[in-house]
Amino acid sequence: METTGQLAFQDVLQRDEPIVADDRASDPLPVASGRVILGVDPGTSGAIAFYRPDRPREIEAVDVPTADGQIDAAALARLIREANTTEAMVERVGAMPKQGVSSTFKFGMAYGAVLATAAALEIPIRQATPQRWKKHFRLTADKEQARGLAIRQWPGSRAFARKKDHGRAETALLALFAVEVPR
User: Burial, 166: exposed, middle or buried (Cβ in 10 Å; 0-12, 13-18, 19+)?
Assistant: First the structure.
């Protein structure tokens, strides 16, 4: 099997240690049987996470793929398919007060791209407001609290190593919320 500087997909499947995502949202994610929950923090600066309840010590979290300042829906679809995603938990958000019209439109486009991509792939979608899922974990609006909790929940993951990885942490916790709080 030939590789091009990245791990070949078969190599990823044969690993025994937890798979840890890095900054490249285009790397293949491992295939798993059973439930695979996609957590999504929508927006072009958002993140996605894949959580498998049958492998609770593992998490994959990456920045949302973008191209030309917008969500790259084709790349997002590839990631979702390659992970064998069975359901999605998307953070239900809206426009921020005093946010400009252009920013609001851009965010709405990103939010719609996430929902449309999951729907086109026939992935069941649930949504939760930040207030609801953060209350479940006893978190405040402080994003560093979410990152700290994710580091404690998945100590083997490097996905939350940097301060700016709070979005990844929030999506991982959102996916965990989907397991802990059934419909």
Answer: buried
- The letter for the amino acid at 112 is G
**Region of 36 on the Ramachandran plot (φ > 0 left; ψ -120 to 50 alpha; else beta):** beta
Q: What are φ and ψ of residue 32, in 5° steps?
A: -140, 150
Contact 153, 172 (CB under 8 A): yes
Task: Say whether 15 sits in a helix, a strand or coil.
Answer: coil
pLDDT tens digits for range 116-144:
999 999 999 999 999 999 999 999 989 99
Give the contacts of 22 (CB within 8 A, at least 6 positions apart).
Answer: 62, 158, 159
User: Which whole number is the average pLDDT over 9-35?
Assistant: 44
- Confidence band, pLDDT 50/70/90 cuts, at residue 33: low
The amino acid sitting at 29 is L
Record the pTM.
0.78
Please list the alpha-helical segments (H only) found in the chain.
Answer: 9-13, 73-82, 101-120, 130-136, 143-153, 166-180
